[in-house]
Amino acid sequence: MSESIQIVIVDDHPLFREGVAHTLAAQPDIEVVAEGASADDAIRLAQEFLPDLILVDITMPGGGLHATQVIATTCPATKIVMLTASEDEDDLMAALKAGARAYILKGVPARELIGILRAVAGGDVYVPPTLATSLLMELSTTRHSSQAPANPIDELTEREQQILEGVAAGKSNKEIGQQLYLSEKTVKHYMTNILQKLQVRNRVEAALLAQKSGRRGAKIP
Q: Which pLDDT score, from 0 to 100, does residue 218 have?
């Protein structure tokens, strides 16, 4: 039997939070290990339980973006999911920049939510289809304004492409280093070069770009 996906849910609306917890806990492969209502709760619970996923709301007390930044830094193995009612494109970009790996709108059906969470736990990055177009347009505009190549990934070295494929698969720098026989520091140096070449701001945007280009990992030797 495979290990369950451990999830922490943080939202300041008890009825909504408890409803999500009840839905997820009914799944045989998902375990809700803790619940909270604020950014402080999110940070504390993430550090205490080190869950596979933590669900936060961008508008919760203390700020979901603040919690995301802290958790992304202190608990890099935990994948952060922004579960929010905000369809604001600026909120989406801010969440991804802060370190969120998924941005899910609260109106999503229960079955779809469960499927998305399983995919994110497996290494995928998710944004709503209604917001994905504007996100990719912004990334495209940024690249074109700097006269980047049509497919900047092709400009990466073979080693950089291997590392990017690991990022797209949801692997940490340490995990990528172990598979490529590189130190974590060396992988981090490569990542800096990759972000500069792709003209993106963080590894989430790099993963989105890689997945759009059809590179989803699994090619690392």
A: 37
Report CA torsion sign: 31, 37, 43, 47.
negative
Q: Where are the alpha helices (DSSP H) in the chain?
A: 14-25, 39-49, 64-74, 89-98, 110-121, 129-145, 158-168, 173-180, 184-198, 203-212
Kindly report the number of other CB atoms within 10 A of residue 12's CB atom. 17
Domains of the chain: 5-127 (3.40.50.2300), 134-212 (1.10.10.10)
pLDDT mean by block of 10 residues, the chain; 221 residues: 85 97 97 98 97 96 95 93 93 91 95 96 88 67 53 84 89 90 88 87 87 57 39
Cα of first residue to Cα of last residue in the chain, in angstroms, is 27
The amino acid sitting at 181 is Y
